[in-house]
Amino acid sequence: MSRQQPLEGPGADGDEAIAAAGAGRAEVLTGRPIRVVVAKPGLDGHDRGAKVVARALRDAGMEVIYTGLHQTPEQIVRTAVQEDADAVGLSVLSGAHLGLFRRVLELLVEAGAGDVVVFGGGIIPPDDVATLEALGVGALFTPGASTREIVAWVRQHAALRHG
After folding, report:
1. For a designed S-S bond to 13, which of 17, 27, 91, 161 qualifies (C-beta 3.0 to 4.6 A apart)?
2. How many structural domains compose the chain?
3. What is the pLDDT averaged over residues 48-77?
4. What confidence tier does 142 reach under pLDDT thresholds 50, 70, 90?
5. Kind of pairing between the strands at 63-66 and 87-92
6. Dist CA 124 CA 134 (whole Å)
7. What pTM was estimated for this model as a whole?
8. Is position 163 within any domain?
9. CA angle 142, 51, 87 (to 5 degrees)
10. Would you say residue 4 lies in a domain?
11. At 136, which CATH number?
12. Domain range spanning residue 111?
């Protein structure tokens, strides 16, 4: 069973950026809120950015399940399937992004959830962005991306999942 973690304050992005990202409900075509699993795979112990993104998505009307630190790809996919997630956001700062994203994408397909939108953020070298996109990662938000940009992208792409 997934466990929702408490979210910290908005951090450097500030409340006005979160409010500008879109208030109200963000819904898929079935009329229910967009559901997003935000996860920290691997051994990385820094989750402030993931919590900022989770809060921005929640404040934009999405249902957010934050899995906490040190999740395996199997745990992340199990949570996404159990929660009927429309999107999975992975935050990776450890340098293990290629293997972690690849495994999550493979497991989603194996679980019959290959239509779940996968996006991510963290420290991703520019040379690896094209590789990850070719694997099926929908978007990568590296340092400097705004919460407004992330919310808009998730709203646009996850809303189409049930369409």
Report:
1. 17
2. 1
3. 97
4. very high
5. unpaired
6. 15
7. 0.83
8. no
9. 70
10. no
11. 3.40.50.280
12. 33-158
